[in-house]
Write a structure and sequence with these properties.
The protein has 129 residues and is of the alpha+beta class. The protein contains three helices and seven strands. This is RRM domain-containing protein.
Amino acid sequence: MEIQSKIHVSNIEASATRDLVHDLFLPFGPILDLSLHANRGYADIQFEDIDDAQAAIENMDGAEFQAKVLRVRGARRDEGRNGSKTVIMDSRKALWEQEQFLEQEQFLEQEQQSTAGDSLDQATTEASL
């Protein structure tokens, strides 16, 4: 299973048009494909770049559009018996369980320890003078 630059948007108002949804997500980057199923309340959007898709997820999940709160998730391609189909990727992983968050927290902790060590060295030097 390969992560794609495709997102799945659910809880779309039935009266939404393709142009409205396109314009709503265009600020995040070039859109290659948009499949709207407004009567079923969802759309699949393919961005040119995976980073654009991630930005759309981060900024639009929980956003209000036509008096409804959108759910925006990443999608992955799953090769099944009937050919390929898009499935919603599980994005319910806690923030602190995600590798990028852990790396950032570790970096900040090391930086704080380094800064605290420098302050202690400076205080010791000043006290001995």
